[in-house]
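Sequence, please.
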């Protein structure tokens, strides 16, 4: 993509700075968009509040039998909420993983035509993938965490190969390792 600020020597540095800032900002906004979107569509369970009178009384005196029963009921609600919260974290991790794979696929699809946009979407996908792995680890579900980390690793290996090894040729018409041109004249390998 042609840099539109090539007219002046100082413009090139400013153009790079603006592109870098745009890439970072786009990546952060995409990750926030996915995180907030998942939280909006799939909200977590609401945390139960302890009975205020019993919580205050518990700090200053021994609870009466009826108060102890109320406190035990609150603790059961709290345990159920913790279990629901763990399941919710697992679900959010899986949903965020799917969203990150979509973002990374979009970044690969537009990288040849719009590299700055592709880099921003790539960063957003990577941040979303990090969010996915962290949320799945929070769930303490080792099977789900292993599955998410396995998919994340496979996607990262493929993405790394596509981005850094399997680059387009000089003509940009096909993908693959850059071929080595052997010179007939013995002077320079790119001249024939």
């Amino acid at each position: 993509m042609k840099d539109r600020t090539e007219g002046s020597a100082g413009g090139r540095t400013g153009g790079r700075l603006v592109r870098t800032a745009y890439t970072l900002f786009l990546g952060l906004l995409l990750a926030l968009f996915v995180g907030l979107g998942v939280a909006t569509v799939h909200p977590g369970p609401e945390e139960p509040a302890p009975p205020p009178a019993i919580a205050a009384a518990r700090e200053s005196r021994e609870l009466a039998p009826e108060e102890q029963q109320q406190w035990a009921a609150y603790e059961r609600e709290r345990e159920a909420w913790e279990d629901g919260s763990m399941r919710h974290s697992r679900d959010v991790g899986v949903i965020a993983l799917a969203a990150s794979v979509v973002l990374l696929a979009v970044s690969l699809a537009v990288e040849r035509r719009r590299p700055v946009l592709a880099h921003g979407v790539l960063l957003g996908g990577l941040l979303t993938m990090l969010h996915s792995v962290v949320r799945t680890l929070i769930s303490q579900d080792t099977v789900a965490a292993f599955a998410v980390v396995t998919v994340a690793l496979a996607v990262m290996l493929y993405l790394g190969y596509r981005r850094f090894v399997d680059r387009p040729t000089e003509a940009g018409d096909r993908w693959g390792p850059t071929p080595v041109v052997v010179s007939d004249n013995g002077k320079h390998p790119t001249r024939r």
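The chain is about 70% helix and 0% strand.
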